[in-house]
Amino acid sequence: MANKIESNPGYPNITNSDDLYARAVKIMHPVTQTLAKGPGQFMKGVAPKYLKRGKNAHVWDVDGNEYIDYNMGIGPISLGYCYDRVDAAIANQLKDGITFSLMSELEVELAELVHSIIPNAESIRISKTGADVCSAAIRIARAFTGRKKVLCCGYHGWHDWYIGITSRDKGIPEEVKDLTNTFEYNNIETVIQSIDADTACVILEPFIFEAPKDNFLQKLQEVCKKNGTLLIFDEMWTGFRIALGGAQEYFKIKPDLAVYSKAFANGMPISLLTGRKDVMQLFEKDVFFFTTFGGEALSLAAAIATISEMKEKNVSAALDKKGAFLKDGYNTIAEELGMASYTKCTGYNCRSMVTFDASAGDPLLLKSFVQQEMIKRGVLWAGFHNMCFTHSEEDLAYTLKAYREVLPLLKEAVRENKVAALLKGEPLETVFRKVSNYNIKPKTVKS
Ligand SMILES: Cc1ncc(COP(=O)(O)O)c(C=O)c1O
């Protein structure tokens, strides 16, 4: 698709976005249903607030401004917006119906496909959201082990068992909060100190931005096995992205259970729980996990089409290549400008993150400044490179060109200590989801 981004003459006109927002704040509290899409992560006064449509890796806001998107729906858009094969599968299914009174044959088709791809998928359950399957995994692990406690590392959705460890824990009984503790990624000692005879499961994102070191995941599996604790991989971000079979294929570790959503249906709402048959069988009678929209057929059709496309086109290799170009390109520019001491791009290539060090000023202000200038140049930027299959070479080259213009501006603003003064809107808010220092509620504080 031709890149028309450069026709954006300056900071975008966001009148329609602001009008919608003014209507929303009167009756919606908060206005967003997904924190990462909300106004706290996009500069008020500069960034658009509402999007209207997308094609491939480009989106258009409600004022008609075009951007290259690097948020990709916060993960689900793995192939690209309005991707023909997936949209055709949805449209075809729509002719036949959406939700039925008996099971859909597509449930079996999707389960067989997943069984053939995900290493631990002896048994498969299908649901709608990431939080659904995370909570189902916790419940079945408790049922299987007859234990209560959970150790976690990463983000696992809005349900009580997890969100009770965070700062937004109001409304959750102490008794529930007491059952979950955290550990530090890449620090097996923090697991060893916390795990005990009542630990039902350890759940973690196999990686977020930091890579596992010193066989951390293998050691974690051994510690869990020795303790009779189930190991659960939360593959919401890693699944179908780092490899078709997710982190378990990439690192060659089969967790007892694993949960997936986001990437595998290119935007449709669907999630998966995969795992050991002897554990999953408890869902037959003892453990309850059912929902009305579980067999909704548009999402099933989209999932089958997306996974098939990912398999045939080796999408994970493409995401790796595109992401490396951007990540390495950013780091080269930062290096050349002598800024590498305070800004870099880290993470796996399929999903990397730009960071700013406090030595150069308030990282949130630095990030706000870069967002403001990237948006001016037609890049919808929130500090992440969530790669999709249709980010074109032109998109990536354009983005690096924008970084080449923006980073010198940041360098000068830092040197003259005027980053805050140059902001044309409200600075960004802190990201709620932690991306490091996960051990916020250790069971045993290391002395
Ligand atoms: C790693 C991880 N687990 C669980 C969830 C929860 O998924 P959902 O928002 O679909 O409930 C998310 C959402 O971002 C996630 O990133």
- Tell me the Rg in angstroms: 22 Å
Average pLDDT rating: 96
List the bound ligands.
pyridoxal-5'-phosphate
Number of helices, counting only DSSP H or I runs of 4 residues or more: 15
Domains (count):
2
CATH superfamily of the largest domain: Type I PLP-dependent aspartate aminotransferase-like (Major domain)
Question: Quick one: CATH class of the largest domain?
Answer: Alpha Beta
Task: Please state how the strands of the largest beta sheet are arranged side by side.
Answer: 4-10-9-8-7-5-6
Order of helices and strands: HEEEHHEHEHHEHEHEHEEHHHEEHEEHH
- Structural class label: alpha/beta
* Binned strand content: 5-15%
Q: In angstroms, what separates the terminal alpha carbons?
A: 57 Å
Name the CATH architecture of the largest domain. 3-Layer(aba) Sandwich
**Which shape, going by the Cα principal axes?**
globular
Biggest beta sheet attributes = 7 strands, mixed
Q: Under CATH, the topology of the largest domain is which?
A: Aspartate Aminotransferase, domain 2
In total, the number of strands is 14
Secondary structure layout plus pairing:
Blueprint: H1 15-27, E1 51-55, E2 58-61, E3 66-69, H2 84-96, H3 105-117, E4 123-127, H4 130-145, E5 149-153, H5 160-163, H6 174-177, E6 180-182, H7 188-194, E7 199-204, H8 216-227, E8 230-234, H9 246-250, E9 257-260, E10 271-275, H10 277-280, H11 297-313, H12 315-336, E11 343-348, E12 351-356, H13 363-376, E13 379-380, E14 384-386, H14 393-415, H15 419-422
Parallel strand pairs: 3-13, 5-6, 5-7, 7-8, 8-9
Antiparallel strand pairs: 1-2, 2-3, 4-10, 9-10, 11-12, 12-14
Helix pairs in contact: 2-11, 3-11, 12-14, 13-14
This protein binds pyridoxal-5'-phosphate (PLP).
